[in-house]
């Protein structure tokens, strides 16, 4: 009877978690859209816009290890709720400033830093809590539904922001985000984060491990898990090499091929639709039997698709064929990204012990967040010096080579002994 009640509670968590993420992600997307436009209209400066991005990325990179330590040492439910309340208060502060006077860049940057810090604690803690919220058989469903909510927000957020921007004043955007954040707090407060958790009990009077020592212990744990180590290295190389696509895609379509802004937006929408449909598929199907093998094959396909972005620069195509080609390509790339990420995330959720999840996920987040700006800067510099098609093709070949080496047959057999 108790087991049946736990499973019912897990089903409740599945939906509460998804709705909470969707509401907060949607609010964040609409806010990000409105603030980006506001900064560009206020200053007309790309550097001010870029500074807002730095205020978002840099705090995440610096704070992620501390978020991981907190997630492994303190109440995960409390961390998630406090982070969401901090988000609400930051938006309330910006709302008060906007009602008393015009929004200043200092107020926007300060709010962006607070939102970034709160988001880091919330995302690392939620990632660490999946196996405590739902039963083992539905981890893939939980990961897929989480991705589904993010994809919905990625599609709908900018669309709603675009419809409202100019029609309603900035305080309306802030109130929308604040209401979304309050609903998320209420939903998260009803969840039991320890329903299926297997964390060690803290003994009364036992001395807590110092923070630095605890972080080192997380690194040591990661080093002693060869499969986990391989997954982390693959993730890092993908994050870095995908800078070729992140920078090159917009550059090629807008600068080189002169694709109209509305058509460019539709191709990016196709990417989000590909992610959404595959997330729905994974949420309804059985768990993948050989996750690392499937992810390996999917990364190879992603490498091929990344190289294919350069084809219209090599072979002449009409405008309509070019637009259709990129729409299909982006749809496939979005789908491949989910096929790569979901099985890997499920595998990591099952492999990492509950007491180390916060630190391991924070290490991954820190390194990935550090490599993304680095990749963007390096590729931005390369695209000014070298032909775009050459950069994309070489990067795609490197990506394929990296995954074939790091996920070689011996590593796959270690991860899935039944393949022997």
From TrEMBL:
Any GO CC annotation of this UniProt entry: plasma membrane
The protein's topology relative to the membrane is: Multi-pass membrane protein
According to the entry, every stretch annotated as the Major facilitator superfamily (MFS) profile domain falls at 13-413
- Supply the InterPro entries for this chain: MFS, MFS_dom, MFS_trans_sf
According to the UniProt entry, its GO molecular function terms are: transmembrane transporter activity
Q: Which Gene3D superfamilies match?
A: MFS general substrate transporter like domains (1.20.1250.20)
Coiled coil, from the record: none
Per UniProt, subcellular location reads as:
Cell membrane
> For this UniProt entry, which segments traverse the membrane?
12-39, 51-71, 78-99, 105-127, 148-168, 174-196, 230-252, 264-282, 294-315, 321-339, 360-382, 388-407
Keyword annotations from UniProtKB, A to Z: Cell membrane, Membrane, Transmembrane, Transmembrane helix, Transport
- What is the name attached to this protein's record? MFS transporter
Q: Which organism is it from?
A: Psychrobacillus lasiicapitis
